Amino acid sequence: MAFQVKSPRWLLWAVLLLLVGMLLTVLVFLAAEYEEASDQAELDQDAAALASDIRSALLRNVQTLQSLHVTPLAPEAWTARASGVLSLHRELVRIEWRAAGRDGRILAQADTPYLRPVFGFMPRTQTQPEVRLACDNAQRLSGPAYSRSYFWPMREGTGMELIEMCLPLFQAGEPAGALVATYSLGGLLSELTNRDLLRNRGLAFNDADGTRLAVLSSLQGGRRNLRSVAVLDLPGHTLILQLEAQRRALGLFPNVLTAVVGALCLALLAVLALLGRDIRRRQRAEQDLAEALAFRKAMEDSLVTGLRARDMNGRITYVNPAFCQLVGRTSEELVGTGLPAPWWPPDLVDEYQQRQAVRLAGKTLPREGFESVFQRTDGTRVPVLIIEAPLIDAQGQQTGYMSAVLDLTEQRRVEDLNRASQERLQATARLATVGEMASLISHELNQPLAAIASYANGTLNMLSDDGAEPLPPADLRRVIERIAEQADRAGRVIKSVADFVRRRDQVREAVAPISLVSAIQPLLVLQAKKDGIRLQVAVDPALPAVQCDRTMIEQVLLNLARNGMQAMPPGDPPMDSGLRRLRIAAVSDADPAWVAFEVTDHGQGLSDEVRQHLGTPFFTTKAEGMGLGLSLCRTVIEQHGSGLSFEPVAPRGTCFRFRLPVAAVASGGQGSPIIAP
Ligand code: ADP
Fold first, then answer.
1. Span 340-379, pLDDT tens digits
2. N vs C: which end of the chain shows fewer Cβ within 10 Å?
3. In the beta sheet, which residues pair with residue 658?
4. One domain, residues 321 and 466
5. Cβ distance 630 to 563 under 8 Å?
């Protein structure tokens, strides 16, 4: 897969490189071609110039030679002048003055002073055919004519290529012999050409068939050299002049243009490579961004928390699926909607509008959020917790608000369940307390019942005793009053138990601290009496009422007081120690918003082990204990926004302490502090 994705790119690069390579090659080739063509043209031009130099020099020579005969001269004088001409013209090998006629007898002659006699090795007569040919042509043309060139061997195997020029002479319009000048072709090349044009070049005379006749200079390289030929068209004969130049070495960049274009191509390639790298980086960044976005979206989609973004005008700009599910609408329906929001319950719109106005007015948003109620399309209502925060963009400007919305339905259900089970537990604990106290209650009931029975029996006895005086009505009345009193006392015991067990109202109400203590006092008195413990109740009458769930707080006080009494079993502390007392007190707290309650005993105190586990449900050191008392107390106190604390007291024992909030409308305590035995 990766290969399939990558291969086209590499292919493109390969094609690009190939094209640039081809372009460079073609450019180099064309540049080389152009250079060669211009070299060739220059060579051709120079070859033509050299040929024309030779031609005009030969013409000048003709005039010089003609000047030998401007005035008739004796042969000796002619020879002297001819020698002068020869010393000035090294290309001339020999000048002859020949008589008119077919045989062309030599009247006078002069040889070049620069060479050993050319015609010493072989007789001059050997050249007669060439001389004749030239002179015939000259005769015919009435002007200078040239023979064909020929090789003239000399001593020691050397030789040279010569050409004859015949110039017919006239005297008074009549032919008067001829001047025959012998040129060496080598001399023509060396003497009559412009040296400047010959630097690093090869110059030679060739035959029509390409045979080399005379060479002035030659070059290495043979066939690879550039060659140009110019025709030296002489009357009677045509010579071919060949100019050679070395081909320029073909460099990678033969000229500046190619080098510049090549450099530009390379720069273009580099730019393309950089661009490619940049594009790849961008692609990678885009891919990373897409992955990050996908990850974020997946995260937002899988969140169970509803997310909602609003602009500064309260219009929805974004919602996640959890939010859509929460309000039972699609994201398309929600995005773009303003206030009032479609999920606001119709009866709460005004309240929410006000709340929204306060928030949008720029008041700081509470970090812990606020609770609200949403209404779904089907009419069901959802309790939610909304945590709102300002939405800040990359420039640091606030563009709106971001909210996390938590569905509290489940939490509320669990809370209700908890509350219900707490209540059940409380009720059970109350029943259990009563169960534990059953013997005490029966003992307490026994006394009034026994008193009733004895009063009744005594009265009956008196009534059934026939001999006895009838009971005066006043006595009878007193007896029946006692019976009624005792029945009332028994009734109060029963009622206090029934009250304690039955009272189940859950409301928080303002209760005077004293009435909390009074409610449990009858039950405590029973146990205190049995164990020989003095019960002290110290409640300041000036204390304000506290806001609490009365039944639960009574239960807490009862639990703590019973624990305290149970910590002082008979004999520990001893009766005469003065420590067998339990104190229940309500005092004003350092913080006037609270009232503190304390239950102090002088029992064995809390061991380290007990201290560690105190409040853990079902932890007990008692054989018949349930270990629920303190844990219930703690829960109840915490529900009232406070905590249960304890500390040892001197000389022995423990003090349990908790606080209750003062009710908003303060009411003084009822009654005076009660000190009960
Ligand atoms: P229970 O009374 O059923 O044992 P509690 O939760 O009320 O359950 O008490 C747990 C344990 O804490 C008791 O068993 C006892 O050992 C210890 N305890 C509670 N109150 C006192 C106290 N005032 N003095 C000493 N020990 C105490």
1. 788 888 888 888 888 777 776 766 666 677 788 888 888 8
2. N
3. 597
4. no
5. yes
Say whether pLDDT at 672 is over 50: no
Question: The domain that contains 634 carries what CATH number?
Answer: 3.30.565.10
Query: pLDDT tens digit string along 403-432?
Result: 888 888 888 899 888 888 877 877 787 777
Which residue's alpha carbon is nearest to atom 8 within ligand 1?
627
Identify the domain containing residue 450 by its residue range.
423-502
Q: How far is Cα 161 from Cα 212, in angstroms, rounded to an integer?
A: 10
Assess if residue 260 is contained within a domain: no
For residue 555 and ligand 1, the question of a CB distance below 6 A is answered with no
- pLDDT tens track for 21-71: 888 788 878 888 888 888 899 999 999 999 999 999 999 999 999 888 888
Do 588 and 452 sit in the same domain of this protein?
A: no
Q: How far is the CA of 457 from the centre of ligand 1 (A)?
A: 45
Examine the domain organization and report whether 438 and 521 are in the same domain: no
The rounded Å distance from CA 650 to ligand 1 centre is 19
Q: How many Å separate Cα 673 from the centre of its chain?
A: 75
Q: How many residues does the chain have?
A: 677
Residue 136 included in any domain: yes
From the CB of 615, is ligand 1 less than 6 Å away? no
Q: Is there a single domain that holds both residue 434 and residue 401? A: no
Looking at the structure of the chain, the number of domains it has is 4
Distances (CA, A) of 333 to 263, 336, 338, 377, 568: 62, 8, 11, 12, 71
**Residue 620 falls inside a structural domain:** yes
Find out whether the beta carbon of 107 lies less than 6 Å from any atom of ligand 1: no
Assign residue 312 the CATH number of its domain.
Answer: 3.30.450.20
Residue 522 is assigned to a structural domain of this protein = yes
Contact 632, 425 (CB under 8 A): yes
